[in-house]
Structures are given as C-alpha cells and as structure tokens.
Queue: 2 jobs
Job 1
Amino acid sequence: MLTIDRLTKRRGSALILSDVTFQARPGRVTGFLGPNGAGKSSTLRILLGLDRPTSGTALVDGVPFERLPDPLRTVGAVLDGSGAHRARTGRAHLSWVAAAAGIPRRRVDEVLDEVDLTGAARKRVGSYSLGMGRRLGLAAALLGDPAALVLDEPVNGLDPEGIRWMRRFLRERAEAGHTVLLSSHLMGELAEVVDDVVIINGGRVVEQGTLAEVTGAHRTLEDAFFALTTGARGGAR
Amino acid sequence: MSAYSGELRKLTSLPSVWAAFAVGIAVPAVVGVLSAVSTSAAIANGTKPEAGPDLGYQELAFGVAGAIILGVVAASSEYFTEGESAGSGRQITTSLTAVPSRTRFLLAKVAALTTAVVLMSAIATGITLSCVQAVVGDHAHALDGAAATRVPGVVLYWVLTALLAFGITLLTRNGVVPLAVLVLNTSVVTVTFLLSKVTPLAVYFPDLAGMRMFLTEVRVPVELSPITGGVVMAVWVVLLLACGFTAFTRRDA
C-alpha cells in the first residue's frame, strides 16, 4: 500500500504540489494522470525519497521509503529513461543494482529474459532505443520481485507492440496481488488497464475514484480528463 | 556491505575508470623511465654525481591525475544525463532507490573509491620505482631505506586527492570543471605552485602540502614536515567532503 498524505512541495516561490492525498492499493492498478508539469513526477520522486516535501508524508506500507529495510524487494521504480549510465552494458547495470541491494546474481538473467532484453544484454546502454532503455529500467525494478511497482510514464516512447506488452504486464502484476502505481499524460493508452484513477492538475488532485466513478457521465476517461483539466481550471503549468 | 560491493561493481564496469587506471599507471612509469634515462646519461658523462632524491617520486606526483579522474567520475557518473532521446534519465535515481540512505550510499562510495585508488597507486608506485631503479641502478634513491615511509605517502596522497576531487564534484554535480581544473593544476600549469611565489600561505594548498609526504625537494618558501603536510591535506579533504556530503544529503537528488 502506497499512501500519499497532504503532500506539499515548494521550489523557491513556485508551488509544485499542494495538499496531494491519495492511495495506491494492492491488487489494483492506480493511474496517476495529469498533463505535463502537473506534479506527477514530483509526487513519485518524493514517494521514492529522491526529493523532499515541504510538508506532508509519502509512505510505503506505513514507512518512509528511506527507512525501508529492503527497499528493492518492497518497491520497484522506473522514472526517466533507463536510469543507467550509457557507457555500461545492460547486464553490468543490472549487476551493480543487484549487488547493491543484496539480490542474487541469477536474478539478472531472469529479469533480462522477463523484459526480453537477453539479446542486447552485452550492448552498451547508449546504443539502446528509448523503448529498450525503458525495458532495462523495468528489469532493474523487477530484480527484487517487489510487492509494489512505481512507474513514471511507462508507455512513453514505446511502439504499439511495446504498449500492448506493458498493458498485459501491468494487469498480470495487479492480478497477482501487487500494487501498481503509474503516472501518465496519455489517457487513451491506459484507460483499459487502470482500476483506480487519480487526476492531478496544477499540483492539486482534482478528482479520484474508481475508473467508473471518474469517467462518470463522460463517454470515455479521456473526455472526463479533458473536462477536468482544461477550461475553468486553466490547464497545465 | 552490499552497498559497497554495488559501488565497486559500478567502478569496474565503467570504461572511464579503466582509462583512469591506464593514465595513473602509464603516465608516471613512462615519464619516470624518460627522466631516469637522462639522469643516467648525466651520471655517465659526469655532469651529475648521482640521481636526485625525488627521481621517480616526482613523476608519481603527476600520475595522481589518474586518481583525480577516478574521484571525479565516481560522482559525476551519477549525474550524467542519458540525453533527451533516451528519456533524460540519470543513474542517481537508480542508486538511491537501491540504497536510499544517503549517508550509507556516500560511505559506500568513499570506501569503494578508496579501494580502487589504493590499488591503482600501489601498482603505479611499484612499476614506476622499479623502472627508475632498473635504469639508474645503484645511483637511484627510489627504493632506498626511506621508501618504507615515502611509498605509503604516495598512496595516501593519491587517496586524499581522489577524495578531494570526489567532494568537489559532489558540489558541482558535473565533472567537466573539476576535472579540467584539477588535472591542469597537476600537469600543465601548477597554479598552486605559482601562487607560492606570491604568498608563502600557498604552501598550505592541499596538493603542495600533501606532496611533502613523499617529496624532499619542493622549492617553496615554507618547509612542512611529511606529517604536517599530510595533516594539512587531510583537513582540506575532510572539509570539502563535509561540504559535499551536506549538499548531497540536503538537496533533491
């Protein structure tokens, strides 16, 4: 269970997040949706202990990420790009992550196979396509077979086949009882994957609930999203 | 312990680290052989009675460039951006999700960096001093009795220099400026040495002070003992690391 509670973040005079509160529950895919610059990445970075909030808390099973005894076995995360240095090979990247987290080496081959990168494992990350880099990031997130996954824009840069693969992967993960929290600004790609929806705009949560609740009277989630994030509410930034 | 082995693995799998080892080992050995050959010629034709006390050690003071590269890269590689077409990711996000405690992360990094630099400087010192001894023979001071304290001095100087470079790069988050400034200062123009012509206080710069641990002939206005020199340099390193650590633990990653 991921619990975001009254999160506020200021950077200088800019208000990045204001009183953001929501939860991501086990066995469900939670879609954290909003236009670019709405505060999605900032929220996820605070949840992962990378950025500090001005006030509020973000907890993983009731504990701040920084104090988790075994972080990689609890939460797997993919933020921007691959999260790997481009001069290393994909395998070398996963090897150091496994070593740093005390995860056995054999998991490296298993996750490479899981994301279909075995063939490119000995190539440098700098030669990877955007989609391959994203899959490498996902492989690192899966090393500890974590109970929760946190993914920032997971379908960005993927080709249609990659998007299909990602949808199926996320559904399987949730159906196995895991928590999945993903952010996206692409509604169409994800509407059929998510169970719960949180919509953020301009640093504030403007709507949250199950997919059916948020879609409400609108024809699609996308229509509901645009109704909530444009017009009177002023759009992004 | 696992954080340390992760950091060691990071170092061994980065091509720029191997380049740093090549520089640190080859530069002093090659320059050492060249000066040993000319010294030995000078002894043969009678212009010099014997080799200077710092032959070999002087060259190891240049080779510290390898340790500087290592110290800079250990920090800058975390912030190296993948490029927009690859999603603008940085390794630091992966590092801190694997080892979320920033203190533990930095201590593991310092330990791994120290391990690598001890290894690099021990190899460089062994090769350089043996080469000088082999070329100059009995006239050399490279491996005489004083070597027992001078060789650890070289290793310590390299380790402290690498930690200094690491601390500065934690503050800048980018390797270009610290690398250029520190490498130029040890090789092309030793700004700190030139400043010692202007003010005697310049002998307390970390590089000039630290060199006293293994060099006997440094033409500066104030003489420091090897121990004083080492302590002065260590104080610089502790202060800069403290600044780097504070910035790193307080800032958003």
Note: Chain A touches chain B at residues 45, 48-52, 65-68, 71-72, 75, 77, 79-89, 92-93, 95-97, 99-102, 125-126, 128, 130, 133-134, 137, 140, 156-157 (CB under 8 Å).
Job 2
Amino acid sequence: MNFFGLMFLTLIEVAAVGLNLQPTAESLGGDWDEKKLTWTILWAIGIPKFIMIAAIFMHLYGDKDSKILTLTALFPAFFIIIMVLFVGLTHPDAVTGLPAWCRPGTYNI
Amino acid sequence: MGVAIFLYFLAEAWSYGTYHPGYIPAILLGLAIVGFSIFIWWRQDISFDGSYEPLATGAPFRKVQIRKVAMWVFLMSEMMVFTSLFSTYMRYRQGIKNCETLFLEGEWIDGTVVTCFEPASHLIASSFWHIAPGAINTFALIISSFTIVQALRYAKMPNLDEEVRRKKVYRYLGSTWCLAVLFLTLKMIEWFIGFYVPEIDLGFIHIHEHDIVSLVNEGYTINADHYQHHNYVIDDHTLHAYELAGHDISNLEHYSNGAHMTANIRVSASLFYVTTGTHGAHVAGGIIGLSYMTYKAWKGLYTPQNAVSIEYFGLYWHFVDLVWVLVFPFFYLY
C-alpha cells in the first residue's frame, strides 16, 4: 500500500513539471505563476513521500523502539534548522545577496 | 578513518593539477585500513547466525539492538552531509541571479561573460525526454525500496521452505541490485552520454527522431565559464518562445540579431554535480553491499534469525531513497 502510494505521488510530481500549469496558476489569481504553483505542488508531494518512507519503510512508526529511533532521526533536525536559519538570518541580505568573498571569481586561486 | 586517510591524501597527491607521488604510500595505507575493516566485518557477518544480537544496556536506547542504533547514528551523520549540500544550494540559488532572469532583464553585454545561476533543471526539465532518466530513476529507487522490504519479509518468514526462502531472498536482493545499477547507468547517460529518440508514429502520438544531448555535451560542466544556452540568444524563434511563455521581452529590443549571452555557471554546475554525485556515490556504496548480500542469499545463508542484517542495510537503502525524494525536485525539476 505504501509502495503504491509512493508511486502515485511520484507520478503527480513528474506530471506537475511536465504539464502546462500556467492556466491553472492564472485562474488562482493573486501573485500565482506557474513556477510558484509547481514549487508548491512539489513541496506538497515531497513532504508526505518523505514521511511515508521514514515512517513505514524505515520503521519509525509502529515498532516498539520507533519512538526513541524517531527522536534519534529527528536530532539532526535541530542542526538542520540552525543551518537553514543561518542561511536566512546571519546577514540582513543573506537571502538576496552574497558576501564578496563567496562570489564566483574571488575563490578562484 | 581509512576512507578519510584515502580521500585526504588522494586530494593532496593531485592538488592544483600537480601530481605528488610522495603521497602514494599514505593513499595505500588508507586503502589497506578500509580493506582490513571490510575483511573483519565480513568474517563477523558471514558467521553471524543471529544467536547473539547485542542489545544496548544504557539509556536512552535500552533493549534496542546496538547495530540498529549504530546505523541510525550513521544515518544522522549522513543527514548532516546532505543538509550542508542543500543549504549551500539554497544559499547560492538565492544569492546569485538566475541566468534566465538576467537574460530577460537585458543586463548583459554580447561577448562579455556574466555570472549567474543556471539550475540544471533548465536543461533537464525542458522536455519529457530530457527528464525521462531522472523520472525513471525516481521510480527505480522506490521500487528498489519495495524489493528490499520483500527480501526482508521472506528472510524473516518462519516455517518457509529453505529452498523457497533462498530463491525469494536472492531474487529480491538481486532485483534491488539491478535497479541500483540501472540508477547509476541512467545517471551516466544523463551526465555524459545522452541518447537517441527514434521516430515513433502511433497515429495518436507522433515523435520526431532526435538526439537528447548529455549535460556535459550541453556545456553544463563544473568549469563552464563561457556557457551559452540556445535559449540565451537574440533571434525571432527564441524571442517568440519567451513571448508565448508570457515573459516581458522589451528589455531585449536593443540587442542585435544573433547576440548571445555568455555565462559563468561554475557555481550552479558544481552544486548540481557534487550533490547528485554524493547521492550517486551512496548508491554505488549500496551496490557493493548488495553484491555481497545477494551472494550470501544465493548461498542460502539468510535465516529468520540473522535476517536482521537485511533490515539494517534496508535502513541505509531507504535513506538513499529519502535523499532522492529531495534531490529530485530541488535539482531536477525546479
């Protein structure tokens, strides 16, 4: 069941990229465009796929040691959040700009 | 430790394009440590009959198999590796202007190199045939996750005839091996070789004969500092295509016909190859493990008592699948 669910979600994922979603995005109104809609669908599909693999295939749900192993698996999430936060918050324009020292050209020794 | 020594001195031996033979003994030492570790591990695994599976005694893993905990700790470190790659990708993708945006804004001069971020998806997601290897690989990995679950299921099944068990387990593990090899083969085709699409006419569908060019042959390489995509040229066909897609092309009107934007895309290409290559290296590692496990299954050495080894490998293999769930949309689709 989990396997077929994953296959189905992957089909939707590939279709979301292959199909022309521009008319759908326009019909949604607001500031929706095709790229934003595709990106939203990819995230909406990716998260349940991730959970289905981790919970069912990797036994993080339903086994007697699932709880402690889930906590173990989630432990790096703390660091992941910090890392992502550093991407966004370490510098006022961290997301939109890059310091000169890590721009292409300056590292080219 | 052996892998670290091997990789470090391998990099030193060929650093900055110069060969330093003095590091060869250290490289061999790294390889010897790896080989010796694998030998010790093999001796323990081949004789493991499941009669003694050590359990953790201390908190918080009390009564959980030590090998299982070790595998999860290993996977945690793997998550950190891939998180570093993903955060680097996000940082650079946001921090460097997209090549297509730059082209449409007209902020470039014909004959002068501009630096921009060219996502591999611009090439890969440009048509059904370009994306086909990546899409097939996605399904291959999901199916391989299923086959390893089935191998474990039959290996653990009590009251099953030994010959039936042997056949089921080695066939499912062998299938997993084949799917992993398919994955790497398609990746090589996508990166280096490309493929030919023949003319297909089924009445309701007609496909023209054409070649799908590999990423490397498209010029998408880690040292591409004079990259020219066929969409970044000023001509009637390209401009019409951009107009049809709803883009504003008014900024391009002052360019002469044939003007071509030349880009330095080394950062984006490096990120693509390093991240998908690291994932591919994990698949390659899995193939080595699967080769041994398939051989062991073929010899009929898996029993319900020692089948837990398949479960531990399965954790690693599912993790490889899990990472691909993120790599595929990030690097191939978007």
Note: Residues 34-57 of chain A form the longest helix (24 residues).
